[in-house]
Design a protein that fits this description.
Elements: H1 2-31, H2 41-55, H3 61-82, H4 91-106, H5 133-141, E1 147-153, E2 157-159, E3 165-168, E4 172-178, E5 182-190, E6 198-207, E7 217-222, E8 236-240, E9 243-249, E10 256-261, E11 266-273, E12 276-284, H6 285-288, H7 299-302, E13 309-310, H8 319-328, H9 334-346, H10 352-365, H11 388-400
Antiparallel strand pairs: 1-2, 1-12, 2-3, 3-13, 4-5, 5-6, 6-7, 8-9, 9-10, 10-11, 11-12
Helix pairs in contact: 1-2, 1-4, 2-3, 3-4, 8-9, 9-10
């Protein structure tokens, strides 16, 4: 009996040690300073730690606690599966996956069943300035919020909120932003003239209902129709204390619209440049990051899927195209690179206006002038001439991707 009891106790000690070790590992991973742009394992870790900490305060007995723990584990496993592709080769990710497997076995958790529900966003009582994000933030924090910028334009090119620059082969409709307050979808279609290049032809923006500040409102723009109003014909919404949470104005009706969402501190600019639409967004970090694990496709947050990314050609267009882009965009940055790419893809000199307008929007939305010009990736050669045969070859290669 004594030996059996000691063996059982040894197993209990090992199980407890494994559980505590895994929790410590999670806390280390959560607090680690490194955070990868696309691998979201740190978010999965944080949600699991928060869910299990809440279990300790919920009561309900051992059986209820174990059921809740199993739900949290299944939710954790689901989160890791959703980010598996982006986390390939990430040590923190593979450690978490192995730890989840061990804990599922240790706690005899069924692999199917309910998952932990995401925690609701804090719902503080509405104060006088609750519907005016920046004003309320300054009062609470004593400083202005950190703003992030995303720009989508041209073939399309994406400057993400984390200042990554990508060119995407994303025909059809794709979410640009999908969080608790805002949903934006862009549709990309082939351009005219027999070219296989794509361009943004439709942008749909949905402002979600948020307490007393804003009712759901929809804005939709299409090529040759960028309206100076929401879909219901109104130009403002959500009146509070004599001011509106949502407003639209236009400098050029039919080709430009600027939308202010005061309750989330967000500004959006939709414009038509040449034969393509473009979108620029300025939004506080807290709003940008207010998404759940299910909202895992957002081009402005993580860029386009790796399988849909286009590499910038190592050679550039003819001297005329090079001179054209240089005159419009003297800095050798991502906008200059996008200009050349679009000229190569479409053969249309007017396509360069997309990059120029995107740069102007970035200047208006990024407070630090030093951060406006992202430099082109290293290794891209700038050549003043490109033989016509090589241009045709590059286009053919692009079509084959």
């Amino acid at each position: 009996m004594g030996m059996g009891a000691r063996a059982g106790c040894t197993n209990c000690t090992q199980a407890t040690w494994k559980s505590h070790s895994f929790t410590v590992l999670l806390l280390v991973l959560v607090l680690a300073p490194q955070a990868w742009t696309q691998c979201r394992i740190l978010r999965c870790n944080s949600e699991f730690v928060a869910a299990t900490l809440e279990l300790g305060n919920s009561g309900g007995g051992k059986e209820a606690g174990n059921a809740g723990y199993c739900s949290a584990l299944r939710s954790y496993a689901l989160c890791t599966r959703r980010t598996a592709r982006a986390c390939r080769g990430d040590l923190a990710y593979h450690s978490a996956v192995q730890g989840i497997e061990d804990l599922l076995i240790q706690h005899r958790c069924p692999r199917t069943g309910p998952t932990a529900q995401p925690r609701p966003l804090p719902q503080a009582p509405l104060s006088g300035d609750a519907c005016f994000y920046e004003r309320g933030y300054v009062q609470r924090e004593g400083r202005a919020p950190e703003y992030l910028h995303c720009g989508v334009f041209g073939d399309p090119h994406v400057r993400t909120f984390s200042d990554e620059f990508q060119t995407c082969a994303v025909p059809g409709a794709w979410p640009l932003i999908d969080n608790q307050y805002l949903y934006i979808q862009a549709t990309s279609s082939p351009t005219r003239g027999g070219s296989y290049a794509t361009a943004l032809t439709k942008i749909t923006i949905i402002f979600k209902n948020w307490r007393e500040c804003a009712e759901q409102q929809i804005y939709q723009a299409e090529l040759d129709n960028v309206p100076p109003a929401f879909a219901d014909g109104s130009t403002s919404s959500g009146e509070r204390r004599g001011q509106h949470s949502l407003r639209v104005r236009s400098q050029a009706p039919g080709r430009h619209a600027e939308i202010w969402a005061a309750h989330i501190g967000t500004t959006l600019v939709v414009r038509q440049s040449g034969r393509a639409l473009g979108l620029a967004v300025r939004s506080p970090r807290a709003i940008v990051e207010s998404y759940t694990p299910e909202q895992d496709v957002q081009l402005c947050v993580w860029g386009c899927p790796s399988s849909q990314r286009l590499e910038t050609p190592h050679a550039l267009p003819t001297a005329a195209a090079h001179a054209h882009c240089s005159a419009l965009l003297p800095a050798r940055d991502i906008y200059f690179q996008a200009c050349l790419f679009d000229l190569l893809a479409t053969g249309d000199m007017n396509s360069s206006s997309s990059a120029l307008d995107a740069l102007e929007d970035a200047r208006g939305m990024i407070a630090d002038p030093e951060k406006v010009h992202l430099r082109a990736a290293a290794g891209v050669r700038v050549a003043p001439r490109l033989p016509a045969l090589l241009v045709a070859t590059l286009i053919t290669l692009r079509l084959a991707l």
